[in-house]
Amino acid sequence: MDISTFQAYAYFFFTAFMVVVLYAYIYHLYSSQWKGKRDYEKYGDIALHDEITDQPIEHVSQNDDKK
Amino acid sequence: MENRPLEYDYTVAKMFMLTTVLLGIVGMLVGVILAWEMAFPAVNTIAGSGLAEYTNFSRLRPLHTDAVIFGFTLSGIWATWYYVGQRVLKVSMAESKFLMFLGKLHFALYLLVVVAVVGSLLMGITTSKEYAEFEWPIDIAVVLVWVIWGMSIFGLIGIRREKSLYISIWYYIATFLGIAMLYLFNNMEIPTYFASGGIGSWYHSVSMYSGTNDALVQWWYGHNAVAFGFTVPIVAMIYYFLPKESGQAVYSYKLSLLAFWGLMFVYLWAGGHHLLFSTVPDWMQTMGSVFSVVLILPSWGSAINMLLTMKGEWQQVASSPLIKFMILASTFYMFSTLEGPIQAIKSVNALAHFTDWIVGHVHDGVLGWVAFMIMAALFHMAPRVFKREIYSKSLMNTQFWIQTLGVVLYFTSMWIAGITQGMMWRAHDEFGNLAYSFIDTVAVLHPYFTIRAVGGTLYLVGMFLFAFNMYKTMTSSRRVEESELQNASPMGA
């Protein structure tokens, strides 16, 4: 296989791979929400409730109690 | 002291707000002088022929671009970082003496760099690389400033209360990492005095790259300086300030994440479009074109997300000049991220390259998107950092319309000038002889250069109104209570 043929195959598979990664990420974002693992939309509230006295949307020590 | 409730500390943010306004005026004033010089060359010697060295186009041009990029925009990025960073991480700078010290050191060193840059550029000391004109001693100082900012970012993140990093923080981090990488690689240079054993000036250097390689690295840097200086951190701002000012959470947080990764992946490959029809490999030119077109998607992903954030609240655009600034900024973002890819298509570029259309593109992006967003951010911050309402709403409205008119005059004149120029350069008779000489094009373009100078002058007038409004807000506006600062910023008539 000469170098240009190799480049063409590599180009095609890399493009296909990136498309798969992109759609997998979109699927991940939505499926996390359906499965109740994580609701990404709640993070939008971080900007709205940003007084220092406001409760954090997720407290930094919430999952790190053992630390 | 012990009983005082914890508050955000905006000391460093205020310092950078000041340089944003001052360096904005300097950068734009120099730009306006340059625009008049283009239209009327006699302006080159306006201060007399003895001082022509300091007032001619070529001496002032890098001062204009660098003052706007590294003065106005960077100060704006840092002013907003030291404001937004604390708020979305829910941690005060006052909680860490070390971070406060770093913030002040950051500002102090930055001021020194600004003085060194202005001085050296006025003296004509440059590396002659566009947007990377600073000589090696200044480059080292720039790296130091950048490292301090990085420590400040990650230091603040390290002591945060909010576990998740809001999308704006992602964009600020990307700005930090992106520029760090670009600046280091493009400014690899050898001090000639030391390398040659004492020949020439101690501060001069030559690039470690040469010829086509130098051009490639330079435009990988140049284009991505636009990406990580004029796009990424400004997106960081709008993702915070538009939702906060309008009281509406970002329309789709998921889309903001997707657009982020899209932008990060695609932008870095698009720089090749600056070198179309040059000596770089053909495949690289094609890649530059293709990635530029793909870049529309993540750019519009963010911009549409911002417009949809206003869903059901469009009356705010009419009632609040602050929202007006941000919506126009977002619209100009969409507009210039469509225009750029069109210019990067090879057949279009064959006409557009080296013409004023490119200059028009840069300015509708920077004046319409970057500067509008930075000014909107400062307007939103002012009542919160000074505890006073914005001095005058009507002055804001006046500024908005004057500057909008200025931008429109700027880019429309440059469109016509650029396309006319491109058409005249390529026109030929049936024997292949060029139909026009260079000076023919200059004569035709003169009216458009004048319109551009008028547009730029209007924008500068708006900048003075902005500075005045900010000054009055800081010094003599009505004091406001914390309860008035929830969403929409309080404004005097």
Q: What are its keywords?
A:
heterodimer; A: 67 residues; mainly alpha; 0% strand; B: 493 residues; two-stranded antiparallel ribbon; 17 helices; 2 strands; globular
What are the SSEs and their pairings?
The complex is a heterodimer of chains A (67) and B (493).
Chain A lengths: L2 H32 L10 H4 L19
Chain B lengths: L10 H29 L12 H4 L1 H33 L7 H26 L13 H23 L8 H20 L2 E3 H4 L9 E3 L3 H36 L6 H15 L14 H13 L1 H14 L5 H5 L1 H24 L1 H7 L3 H31 L6 H34 L11 H38 L18
Antiparallel strand pairs in B: 1-2
Describe the protein.
The complex is a heterodimer of chains A (67) and B (493). Chain A has 67 residues and is mostly helical. Chain A has a domain at 3-48. Chain A has helices spanning 3-34, 45-48. Chain B is an all-alpha fold and 493 residues long. Chain B has a domain at 1-135 and 144-162. Helices cover 72% and strands 1% of the residues of chain B. Chain B has helices at residues 11-39, 52-55, 57-89, 97-122, 136-158, 167-186, 192-195, 211-246, 253-267, 282-294, 296-309, 315-319, 321-344, 346-352, 356-386, 393-426, 438-475, and strands spanning 189-191, 205-207. Chain B has a two-stranded antiparallel sheet. In chain B, helix 1 (11-39) runs parallel beside helix 4 (97-122) and helix 11 (296-309) runs antiparallel to helix 13 (321-344). The longest helix of chain B is centred in the C-terminal third of the chain and has 38 residues, at 438-475. Chain B starts with 10 loop residues before the first helix and ends in an 18-residue tail after the last helix. In chain B, 49% of the residues are buried.
What does this entry show, briefly?
In chain A, about 55% of the residues lie in helices and about 0% in strands. With about 70 residues, chain A is an all-alpha fold. Chain A has a domain at about 5-50.
Low-confidence stretches of chain B: none
Question: Radius of gyration of chain A from the CA trace?
Answer: 21 Å
Question: On the 0-100 scale, what is the average pLDDT of chain A?
Answer: 88
Largest protein interface? A-B, 28 and 33 residues
Tally of DSSP β-strands of chain A: 0
Order of helices and strands of chain A: HH
Number of helices of chain A: 2
Could you tell me the radius of gyration of chain B in angstroms?
Answer: 23 Å
How would you sum up the major sheet of chain A?
none
Net shape of chain B: globular
Count of DSSP H/I helices of chain B: 17
> What's the β-strand tally of chain B?
2
pLDDT averaged over residues of chain B: 96
How widely separated are the two ends of chain B?
37 Å
Q: What about the largest sheet of chain B? A: 2 strands, antiparallel
Tell me the distance between the termini of chain A: 55 Å
- The helix content of chain A is 40-55%
